[in-house]
């Protein structure tokens, strides 16, 4: 395996306000853009050429990663002029691939944190002679996902919409968002229009008699599509629950980036990240949270399971639990923000103005 396509064009609407100024794959997780973890794991699995399918805020990626040489990779970037969906994005970058028709190409989404054994997926694809192979994972409650049943040999037998009744839950296996395609299959995807691999390409291939192979790998897997999941994923990277060679430090309760300032009596726990140039004041408590670059947590503030945007400020004595604060926002002193509350970029909340939870 030498080539991969990374789908990084989504707008990250569910992650706003984190994605107002930053595309979702570039939001920092465990101290570096989430995309850095995916690239590092791909490189460790033997990938050396990655084509990024970009769209939203496409101009952000190349200035950060360049040609990929510092990562031991050759990176290329292709920008969609109009949204093309997952299948359309794959087809749109095909001209940049070097693989022959029968060669395998790894494809993965830019918002999935996983411990997938990439080499094992490629080996499964090659060993079974599949046209496309899918990483499948098992979930305890599959009602929010499309189901992917397989036969005794692992061959995919159907793609089922989200089940509406208990009788429709015929498997706990779901599409986990990483694939291996034969290059020849990529070339059959229609050009110039939106195409969904989940709703069009995969069912179409199956009905045409193609061999679609599923590999169940139930190691760590998390869709980082919501702020709550993103915060949890970052903490799990710091704690070592999710594997990544890109974490810039040793795993543990906290990750404090260079130039950050943390008061001696401040307490950081639960996989908390404090970004470069950020400040955590005296007596502050930060648990399971991400504090991005240049943010300020004032003395005596308490922040739990929250994400504090770049340059934001949390006032003295404020309590945040499950909150998201956008870049440059200011939460004044002695506020209480709970239950998924989101504070937009550059917003200003006066001292003592908020004392409620969004679920009350």
From TrEMBL:
One Pfam family recorded for the sequence: GMPPB_C
Coiled-coil positions: none
Record-annotated Mannose-1-phosphate guanyltransferase C-terminal domain positions: 252-334
InterPro entries attached to this UniProt entry: GMPPB_C (IPR056729), Mannose-1P_guanyltransferase (IPR050486), NTP_transferase_dom (IPR005835), Nucleotide-diphossugar_trans (IPR029044)
Residues of the Nucleotidyl transferase domain: 4-236
Family: Belongs to the transferase hexapeptide repeat family.
Protein name: GDP-mannose pyrophosphorylase
Record organism: Streptomyces daqingensis
Lineage summary: Bacteria, Bacillati, Actinomycetota, Actinomycetes, Kitasatosporales
């Amino acid at each position: 395996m030498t080539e991969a396509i990374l789908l990084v064009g989504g707008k990250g609407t569910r992650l706003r306000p984190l994605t107002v100024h930053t595309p979702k794959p570039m939001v920092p997780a465990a101290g570096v853009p989430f995309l850095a973890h995916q690239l590092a794991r791909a490189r460790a699995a033997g990938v050396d050429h990655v084509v990024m399918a970009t769209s939203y805020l496409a101009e952000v990626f190349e200035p950060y990663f360049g040609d990929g040489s510092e990562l031991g990779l050759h990176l290329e970037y292709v920008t969609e002029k109009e949204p093309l969906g997952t299948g359309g994005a794959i087809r749109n970058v095909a001209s940049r691939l070097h693989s022959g028709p029968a060669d395998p190409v790894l494809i993965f989404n830019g918002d999935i944190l996983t411990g997938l054994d990439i080499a094992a997926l490629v080996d499964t694809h090659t060993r079974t002679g599949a046209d496309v192979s899918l990483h499948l994972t098992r979930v305890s409650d599959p009602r929010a996902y499309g189901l992917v049943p397989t036969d005794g040999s692992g061959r995919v037998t159907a793609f089922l919409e989200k089940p509406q009744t208990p009788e429709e839950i015929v498997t706990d296996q779901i599409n986990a968002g990483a694939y291996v395609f034969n290059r020849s299959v990529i070339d059959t995807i229609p050009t110039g229009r939106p195409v969904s691999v989940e709703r069009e390409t995969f069912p179409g291939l199956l009905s045409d008699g193609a061999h679609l192979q599923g590999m169940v790998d139930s190691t760590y897997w998390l869709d980082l599509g919501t702020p709550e999941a993103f915060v949890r994923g970052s903490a799990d990277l710091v704690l070592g629950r999710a594997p990544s060679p890109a974490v810039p430090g040793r795993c543990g309760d906290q990750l404090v980036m260079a130039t950050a300032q943390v008061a001696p009596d401040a307490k950081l726990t639960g996989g908390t990240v404090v970004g470069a140039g950020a400040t955590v004041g005296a007596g502050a408590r930060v648990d399971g949270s991400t504090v991005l670059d240049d943010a300020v947590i004032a003395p005596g503030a308490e922040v739990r399971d929250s994400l504090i945007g770049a340059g934001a400020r949390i006032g003295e004595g404020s309590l945040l639990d499950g909150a998201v604060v956008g870049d440059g926002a200011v939460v004044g002193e002695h506020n209480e923000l709970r239950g998924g509350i989101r504070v937009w970029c550059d917003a200003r909340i006066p001292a003592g103005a908020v004392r409620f939870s969004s679920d009350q």
